[in-house]
Specification:
The protein is α+β, with helices and mostly antiparallel strands. It has a domain of 72 residues: SpoA-like (Surface presentation of antigens (SPOA), Roll), CATH 2.30.330.10. The chain is 20% helix and 25% strand. The chain is elongated and about 95 Å long.
Length: 114
């Protein structure tokens, strides 16, 4: 038998049987319940608006300065959870603090497109 034939025989595909695989969930067989994640804190932010300013104007800012934003009073505010857009609402003042009254939960399709 030539060296070339021996090399070809060495690299030919052969039938092989693989043992049946077991499904492993990566948690040692434990299941995760919704209650397990309830104590986890997530970062919630609201986008009240934005603006562009010249460096000169930023350097002139002081306590009491007012920065105008691109949203009108009463306009919908976007709410994000860990950077993911999840809702829209109206910014409201209750007592001395600012809140967002949710009026719309963003649908799954909007989240995937965004």
């Amino acid at each position: 038998m030539s060296e070339e034939t021996q090399a070809l025989e060495k690299h030919q595909a052969a039938d092989h049987e693989f043992p049946e695989m077991e499904v492993v969930d990566g948690r040692g067989g434990q299941t995760l319940d919704l209650q397990d994640i309830m104590p986890i804190s997530l970062k919630v932010t609201a986008d009240l608006g934005k603006t562009a300013m010249k460096v000169k104007d930023i350097l002139d800012l002081k306590v009491g300065s007012v920065v105008s934003l691109d949203k009108m009073a009463g306009e919908m505010t976007d709410v994000y959870v860990n950077g993911l857009h999840v809702a829209r609402g109206e910014a409201v003042v209750i007592g001395d603090t600012l809140h967002v009254r949710l009026s719309e939960i963003v649908g799954v399709n909007e989240v995937e497109e965004g």
